[in-house]
Amino acid sequence: MPNRRMLRLSTCTVICFAQMLLVPIFCESAAGAAQQFQVVGRWQGKFPLPDDQSISEDENPIAVEITVKEDSGKLSGFATFYVIRTKDGKPQIVNKKDSEMIAPQFDGKVLKFSVKAKGSQPGTETTMAMRMTLTNATEAELETPADSSAAVFKMKKVQSR
């Protein structure tokens, strides 16, 4: 009989120990799930301000706009890239290019998609991968992972749905 009692006590100890280890893991995953954000809406981004402070935030025009839609759980949308030139010492929008999102995917924090862009040869197009990482519910960073020299745009959500 003492062996049975010892076996039962050992089994209970192992189960209790396993529960103590697993509860923090489950709590941590639940806390991580709470960090998921809603990406659907309209986002706007500007080029980073120059170090010499030659222009103010108000004078810095919108350089990119991302519109994300959802229909029956499927994401779609488009990106608008604004061509900015300096006129009279201030940056101004002179043109824009709209591009539909290709294969957008969102994991609760990072939106990955591609857009069509001008190719290196005249009259050609290429596909450019983009990544928008949400830092909170209304702010994100948009980057081109394949081009480390490209600007990282600070995005702000200006409209939900």
Would you write up a description of this structure?
This protein is of the alpha+beta class. The chain has one helix and nine strands. It has a nine-stranded antiparallel β-sheet, with no helix packed on it. The chain is globular. It starts with a helix and ends with a strand. The relative contact order is 0.16. About 16% of the residues have low confidence.
Summarize the structure.
The chain is α+β, with helices and mostly antiparallel strands.
User: What separation lies between the terminal Cα atoms?
Assistant: 68 Å
* β-strand amount: over 45%
How many helical elements?
1
Record the strand order, biggest sheet.
Answer: 4-3-2-1-9-8-7-6-5
The helix-and-strand class reads alpha+beta
Shape: globular
Radius of gyration: 25 Å
Overall pLDDT level: 81
Show unreliable segments.
9-34
N-to-C series of helices and strands: HEEEEEEEEE
Largest sheet, in brief, is: 9 strands, antiparallel
Helix content: 10-25%
Give me the count of strands. Answer: 9
Core attributes:
161 residues; alpha+beta; nine-stranded antiparallel beta sheet; 1 helix; 20% helix; globular
